[in-house]
Specification:
mainly alpha
Length: 67
């Protein structure tokens, strides 16, 4: 029973580590998107043009670039 508890604890620790890494990467991605949006808004003459300029730069979720 002690071995089962140790294995379970190792899995739990690994899951916590992976969840932390995922949260960190998501924050980085959102920061990048916010930066791109801010630059787009700053340079656009109107909100409508900013929206039109930003939309092509943001592909639908789950779509990978083909470069």
């Amino acid at each position: 029973m002690s071995r089962d508890h140790t294995a379970l604890e190792q899995v739990r620790q690994q899951q916590q580590l992976l969840n932390g890494e995922l949260a960190h990467r998501i924050k980085n991605i959102l920061t990048m998107v916010q930066s791109i949006a801010s630059q787009t808004m700053r340079d656009a003459p109107s909100p409508e043009e900013a929206s039109a300029d930003f939309a092509p730069a943001s592909p639908p979720w789950g779509v990978r670039p083909t470069c």
